[in-house]
Every structure is written in C-alpha cells, then in structure tokens.
Amino acid sequence: MVSKIVIFLDMDVVLAVIGLICCLVGLLGSFLPILPGPALSWVGLLLIYLTSKVENNYWILGFTLLITIAISILDYVIPAKGTKRFGGTKYGVWGTNIGLIVGLFIPPFGFIIGPFLGAFIGELIHNSEDKNGALKAAFGSFIGFLVSTFMKFMVCLSFLILFVYLAFDGFVR
After folding, report:
1. Backbone phi and psi for residue 50, each to the nearest 5 degrees, phi listed first
2. Is 43 helix (H, G, I), strand (E, B) or coil?
3. In angstroms, rounded to a whole number, what is the distance separating the alpha carbons of residues 171 and 111?
4. Distance, CA of 63 to CA of 65 (rounded, Å)
5. Is omega for the bond preceding 115 within 30 degrees of 0, making it cis?
6. CB atoms < 10 A from the CB of 116, how many?
C-alpha cells in the first residue's frame, strides 16, 4: 500500500506569501538599480488585495499605483537633475549607475563610495582637464542618487507596512 501525503495550500496563503516576498524584494530593490523596487512592492499590495481575506479597496490600489509610477519616473529624473545642477553631464549619470553596480560587490562601503567614484570617473572621461568640475558634478550626481534611493526606500517601506497591516487585519483577526 502506497501512502500519499497531500498538502493542501490555501490560495489566500499562497498569494499572501508571494505578496510578502514581492514587498521584501521591492524593499531590497529600492537600493539595487537592477530591481524595480516600488513596482515589486506594489505588486505585493495587489496580491494581498486579491485574497478573499482582505476587502478590495480600489482607491488605495489606484493611489499607490500613481505613487509607484511617479516614483519610477522621478528615479530617473532626480539623479540627472542633481548632476546637471552641479554642472555634470550624462557621463556622470552613467558613471553613478555603473559605480553603484560595481560598488555592490565591494562591501561594506562600496554601495556608498561606488556611485560617487563612478560619477567622478565618468566626468573625467568626458573632460579630463577639469578635475574640480568633475568633483562637483560627481557630488551632485551622488546627492541625486541618495535622494532618489531614500525616496524609493520610504515608498517601499510604506507599502510593506501597509501590506503587514492588511495581512494582519485580514488573516489574524
């Protein structure tokens, strides 16, 4: 006689777990340029609303979607504006992004130093004679990167807190 163990997973639990994973990866994605942090966190919110345990609220979903779209657009605009404001070029912006990716592999401070050095090197590639201008542009690009990252982190953290509240309210109560 062969005994079979059948595991029954409730679809609400599956959606909630996948939603939580999306929110957590989204939070991580607020720091990593490879992952769309706010969009992943929003998908996590959408998944918790797809469960039968949480009452649908299209206003919250719509509002958080608009925030996600706005943050995604600002994520590209803010570092560029920071670089331009401090006299930089596209080379500084590209250098910031490349420096961030390289910096991720140099813990613990590569994440902070990488974007700055990347912007500085990018500006030096553009104009190797103006070291002060490159330093100023690198600083602007770095400030823009920090502001953009902080903004994405706060939005993703807010979405995670909302997710936990909704999950607790729907599943535990």
Report:
1. -80, -10
2. helix
3. 38
4. 5
5. no
6. 22
CA–centroid distance for 51 within its chain: 25
pLDDT digits (tens, 9 = 90+) for 12-51: 999 999 999 999 999 999 988 778 999 999 999 999 999 9
Tokens 């690198």 belong to 138
3 state DSSP class of 107: coil
Q: How far apart, in whole angstroms, are the C-alpha atoms of residue 79 and residue 98?
A: 13
| CA neighbor of 24 nearest in space, from 160, 158, 150, 153 | 160
pLDDT tens, residue by residue, 93-147? 888 888 878 887 887 777 778 888 988 999 899 888 888 888 988 888 778 888 8
Q: Return d(Cα 167, Cα 173) in angstroms, integer.
A: 9
The upper half-sphere exposure of residue 172, i.e. CA atoms within 13 Å in the direction of its Cβ, equals 6
Helix axes 37-49, 11-29, angle to 10 degrees: 160
